[in-house]
Amino acid sequence: MRHGNRRLDLLLAFGAASFILLPWYRLESGFFGLDWLGDFPFTESAAPGVLQLLVHGRLWLLGVVLFFGLGFAARFIVDPMRRGAFFAAAGAAGLVYLCLQGLAVGFSGWTWGISEALFGTLSDGQPSMGAGAVTMSIVFVLMFAFGLVERGVMKGDAFVVGSISLLVFLVFVFVFYPIGSMLVAAVQDFDGSFKPDDFIRNLQDPGIWSLSCLIGDGRCGVAWRTFTLAIMTASASTLLGLAFALVATRTRFPFKKGLRLLTVLPIITPPFVIGLALVLLFGRAGVVTETLSSLFGIEPGRWLYGLTGIWIAQVLSFTPISFLVLIGVVEGVSPSMEEASQTLRADRLRTFWRVSLPLMKPGLANAFLIGFIESMADFGNPLVLGGSNGVLSTEIFFAVVGSQNDPSRAAVLALVLLFFTLSAFLAQRLWLSGKNFATVTGKGDSGAHIALPRGISIGVHAIVIPWMIFTVVVYGMILVGGFVTTWGLDNTLTLEHYARAFSVSIQNGSIAWTGVAWNSFWTTMEISLISAPLTAAVGLLTAYIIVRQKFAGRNLFEFALMMSFAIPGTVIGVSYIMAFNLPPLEMTGSALILIACFVFRNMPVGVRGGIAAMSQLDKSLDEASLTLRADSFRTVRKIILPLLRPAITAALVYSFVRAITSISAVIFLVSAEHNMATSYIVGLVENGEYGVAIAYSSMLIVVMITVITGFQLLVGERKLRRENRVAGLGNNSPVPLGQEKTA
């Protein structure tokens, strides 16, 4: 009881400090720069909540004081059940009120007409929430959580209840609130009033839904064009990924290491670089185009600039991801089931089609879903190769930053894109639900997989070998393109592009980063290094809660977290712009919005990796720690985390790589002060500076390879050693059953 009281006291002290000692509203100069200390506390822009209320007339903050005061009063209730009920109620009510007043009061007054009708006109408004308001919102969340702990929820485990409450709150703020803001913005006028006219007009636009291409009269609308491209890309990448996985696991292919290397390269490559390489090969001044023109007199064409070019680039980009999904599935098919089929006189072809392939359905469905969503969200390749055949992601971009300046159209297009991806996500879950594909049980499962049928083996080799050669050629173009003066016009070898991007000089005795790319490069490294550990921490904490804890709504909680995976990056970017450009949370143009985007965009991968790793740890380890009176936080820190080092490292590396190579969401969120590498490269491509763009991309690939190599070395150092001896016996003595030791 004394420990619980101390926890509540610390939380209340923290809440009081946030209202009295921290600037309540957002500071233009930033909080962490500490420039505001000179104006604190009496200047209106830097005043804490108590002075905003008493001196500057922000009377709506009185409700915050009221609900926090109720929590403070509840602290002195003796009965823990009643104390918990009052504390939780005060926290929930305070959080709801803080959010509502932030939404209702904008810069110039009321943002809702109903508020003005009820309470009259406000003479002044309020800026966005700052350090004090954000801290108070977290205090209210923990007040609600600790109130439940007082009532014995989750066996009174404050760490677990607090973690669940904070995760739900953060997912609501950074996933569901932006999507909701986008929905509202689609039917809002500039003054905030309800006006669905633009939404209806854009929704009925023939340019989105037209099917005239089916009757040979014009082109399909952008929605069906994007949907068709996604189906084609997902089908091709899944088929190729399966072929790669079969070659890597079921054949004696001599270049398996090279095959695996080619699966890593596209993942660590900026998403539009493959499109650039295809331009260098098949563009009007490309190597292949000019060779065919000189040898056979074939006139250069523009066939690459359209859906065909986008499809080739996307299949090149996303096949490795399908391979990584499918290789574990192919290896996981039980050899004993294949042997049983052959024992029943089925030949290898029948066994493959009737036994092995059906057991791969979950992996095939996941690979198809990933390919579909990645194609829908792809921005870089359509921007480089799309020409006049725009897709949803590029149309959204031009509706926001182009001459159209039509936020309603961007919102409608984003909703169409979200509808397609969520439909695919839900369809996949419904198709797999209730079906059992388990092949690995607790029983021994010795034996080897059967060889592929001859026809299938020839077929997959006929697919994989040309594709490997084509991929090598494409990456050769990426390598060479940065060392050519002007591709197709002046093929003289030069280092000018690298020097322009990454030149360094000595000025006044110190190093000066004079290259044009250094600013965005260091910004990218800084934001990636901050977001990667946060992503890993949130993902692994969520995995611990899902795997180790049982609570009402756990399946809904997991589904809500994983649903953010199905939201394309383009939609995330647009929704963040619409949600965080105005009060109550204004983050556009700052590094914080980029970090938040990366954390909650990449979190599902960390969650799935953590779940897979944690499922291998027996629950008896946790139970032994808890039996010895360690709380959940100490158990996680001392027992779980040391055993999850490979999963932690994998989550860190993946998050770091994704933060560097992301473009679909980043393109909407960067600013002049915080410009990311991929956004800067897109600007180079739009200006026709292909040489510098390829040089910069090559540098990013080198950085990614270095990180991946470091990751592999780090994981490789963790080995299990089994000693075949027990105390008192010689090294060659037999070991009694059950006494094998793992070090």
Order the strands across the largest sheet as they lie in space. Answer: 1-2
Count of individual helical segments: 32
Radius of gyration from the alpha-carbon trace, in angstroms:
29 Å
Q: How far apart lie the N and C ends?
A: 40 Å
* Total beta strand runs: 6
Identify low-pLDDT runs. Answer: 436-445, 715-743
What's the pLDDT, averaged over the residues? 82
Q: What class do helices, strands and sheet pairing give?
A: mainly alpha
Q: What multimeric state do the chains show?
A: single chain
Helix percentage range = 55-70%
Organism: Peteryoungia aggregata LMG 23059
Membrane topology: Multi-pass membrane protein
Subcellular location: Cell membrane
InterPro entries: MetI-like, MetI-like_sf
Explain this structure to me?
A two-stranded antiparallel ribbon has the order 1-2. Strands 3-4 form a two-stranded antiparallel ribbon. With 743 residues, it is an all-alpha fold. Helix 3 packs antiparallel against helix 4. Helices cover 65% and strands 3% of the residues. The longest helix has 31 residues, at 518-548. Strand 3 (504-507) and strand 4 (510-513) form a beta hairpin.
